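Re: How this chain folds, sequence and tokenised backbone to follow

Filed under: protein folding, tokenised backbone structure, sequence and structure records.

Contents: The amino acid chain and a row of whole-number tokens, matched residue for residue.

Body of memo: The sequence and its backbone structure tokens, given next.
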Amino acid sequence: MARTTKKTSRAPAAATAARHRALQKQADAKEKTQAAKKKTARKKKPVQAGTRRQPENPMPAQHLAKPGNEDELRLQPRFLAPDYVGSGKLDGMAAIVTGGDSGIGRAVAVLFAREGADVAVFHLDEDADARKTRRHVEAEGRRCLVVAGDVGDPAFCKTAVGKVVKAFGRLDVLVNNAAFQLHAADIDDITDARLQETLRTNIGGYFNMARAALEHMSEGACIINTGSETGIFGNPKLLDYSATKGAIHTFTLSLASNLLARGIRVNAVAPGPVWTPLNPADKSAGDVAAFGEDSDMGRPAQPEEISPAYVFLASPVTASYVNGVVLPVMGGPRG
């Protein structure tokens, strides 16, 4: 009887196990089909949805020394947005753009000037890039002040903001955009020194600049922080950078609530992959060649495709009721 009971009790288990294997077989087959579809999808042509065609992969296989000079890139990022026509959205205003010497910062500085704002550009030691940004801001008919320094230093921020207010007589918009980024395959590769550098620049610098700027801002002013898709979805090889970008997003929401009674808006832009010196000054040349090809649009954005979002958030004409928003500009739901 014992043997009969044992066989009887095993029968349902065996049947269940068989069902599990059958379901597994179905799942495996579906997974193979989905993988094949993904592989085919990757072969699709990159998406072009703007007024002019943007560069597509492969990008130049090039590695730059930090902090990364834009004038050394073999493929120059597009920042002029020639089809963007200004309409006075920032007329008579004054703005600061940190990391404004190149990349997104340069593109933002140029469009701000096209919309009528005087612009101060803060940068580290990329003097040639900063001079080029100034030339283009001035070509738009506005004044440009270039200031070199480290936003991780509170004393510099306070002094530099004071210079801007003295030169322009006011401060209406702060764009926190300066960033430090290095890829790492493993968390053990992130040294204490590197972690501190990422934190002091990416989140400490935003705090420092906000505190310094708010002394001179009044109702109607705004702060725009540059976040990232990594702050939303994470990135396995950008642990410290992603953490700071997530912090920037929550800092944006918190500061927006904090300053609401003063009539000062705070928002953020979260870009996906953008062709700037940041990644060529981080990744190996081989990885740079494939930069952005796994995004939803199959290519990295050009800075001129990101900068109009900053104009929208900066202008009281277009965004007077927009506060505490992290605006994704990633080419798709997942960047």
Notes: The CA atoms of residues 233 and 266 lie 22 Å apart. The chain has one domain: 70-329. The beta strands are 94-98, 118-123, 144-148, 173-176, 222-226, 265-271, 326-329. The two ends are 64 Å apart (CA to CA).
